[in-house]
Amino acid sequence: MNKFQQLWLALLGGLLLAAPAAQAEEPIRIGVILPLTGPYADYGEQIGNGLKLYMKQNGDTVAGRKIVVTIRDDTGIAPEVSKRLASDYLVQDKVDILAGFGLTPSAMAVAPLATQAKKAMVIMNAATSVITTKSPYIVRFSHTLPQISAPMATYAAKSGIKKMYTLVADYGPGIDAETAFKKAFEAGGSQLIGSVRVPVTNLDFSSYIQRIKDAQPEAVFLFLPPGSATVSFLKAYKERGLDKAGIKLLATVDFADDDLMDVLGQSVLGVVTSGHYSMAHDSALNKAYVAAYAEAYGTKKRPNFMSVAGYDGMAGIYAALKKTNGDTDGDKLVAAMKGLAFESPRGPISIDPETRDIVQTVYYRRAEEKNGRVFNIEFDSVKNFKDPGKQ
Ligand code: PHB
To answer: In testing the pocket of ligand 1, which one of 34, 103, 142, 168 has its CB within 8 Å of the most ligand atoms?
Structure first.
């Protein structure tokens, strides 16, 4: 080897060594899409609070690379806005990962873009079962409506309830909730005596509730996206005397949202719901989570199931990045998320490698008063429950 060749080899060696160092300096960009204004602004606040809390506790560097998170507002049910934000993130900002998604229409609109760009897309609330089938790059850390509605039907049937009515919001998650509830309830030999789907933005429940009262069911099963709709529903339910008529109310976690418990107050006492997270979940990890949340955001704002999905979604991203050693290739990240299993403030969770959907414990909870505030107190559970909507 002559001097020139030696020099060339030394230079090449230096370049090769320098390449990973240069890459290590590039941050990992996560583009988060959430509703931050409008009727579902609270979802964005909760999910954002959860993901920021995870970063506060775990730092903003993974596998030697800095994590840079941007959060943008899709305003709620506005799929065109979500799509435009995702496109900007992918094309202009060159994000490595998409995350967030408070509502189903937003996740559905963005799914084809994740596929096209081959970027991991982490769902932190949107809960219609079919979402994960819309792109091989989607992984969900929240819940699905069939996952929490089917156990509620089993509970109703076991409690000896024979005459049931359902009321759901007329879009993906509501239809999923109704379908899964009906299937599981009727598997026990009973029949629904009526079902009604209401427009997702509906806030006036009086005529629907009168119809239910006239049908005289023993109980009503409910899914509405939490917020003004759930508050209005409960008000009309009481005003029309359904509780006095002995018509029980059974619902999913979305109804007895921890964040709304101070608004619902005494009127929600005794209501049984099924869900994947309660602020009152009795574990050391959850106690630490609730305390850290209070320290970061104050005690008036209660952490709810959406905050935990934001927190766990971030934990999933960090765990996957550690496995890929900071490689953000969408296929590698999704492969690293498949089969992930860890303890969450909600209890043990894992990602089903076949469906990329979450497997978790579904808890039965009753709204009870404790130290002057109302909480969802868990009294039974179904462990390691997969989304039945996929079968
Ligand atoms: C949804 O749109 O997927 C959705 C919204 C609110 C919930 C659950 C699901 O509480």
So the answer is: 103
End-to-end C-alpha distance for the chain, whole angstroms: 66
On whether residue 345 sits in a domain, the answer given is: yes
pTM (whole model) above 0.70 = yes
Core vs surface per residue 313-334: b (16+ CB within 10 A) or e: bbbbbbbbbebbebbbebebbb
Considering only residues 21 and 276, tell me which one the structure prediction assigns the higher pLDDT. 276
CA distance 360 to 358: 6
Atom of ligand 1 nearest to the CA of 257: 10
Q: Do 297 and 188 reside in the same domain of the chain?
A: no
Mean pLDDT to the nearest integer, 88-116 = 98
Whole-number pLDDT of residue 191: 87
Identify the band that residue 124 occupies on the pLDDT scale cut at 50, 70 and 90: very high
Q: Which of 125, 176, 230, 273 to mutate to test the pocket of ligand 1 (most atoms within 8 A of CB)?
A: 125
324 in the same domain as 287: yes
CATH number at residue 304: 3.40.50.2300
User: Which amino acid is residue 27, in one-letter code?
Assistant: P
331 secondary structure, DSSP code: H
Q: 342 is written with which tokens?
A: 């860890």
- Same domain, yes or no, for 247 and 374? yes
The best mutation among 148, 254, 259 to test binding of ligand 1, ranked by most ligand atoms within 8 Å of the C-beta, falls on 254
From the CA of 143, how far away is ligand 1's center (Å)?
A: 9
- For residues 260 and 295, membership in a common domain is answered with no
Atom of ligand 1 nearest to the CA of 225: 6
Considering the domain architecture, whether residues 258 and 385 belong to the same structural domain is answered as yes
Number of domains in the chain: 2
Shared domain for 210 and 259, answered yes or no, is: yes
Q: Which domain holds residue 259?
A: 146-280+363-390
Cβ < 6 Å from ligand 1: which residues? 103-104, 125-128, 173, 225-226, 254
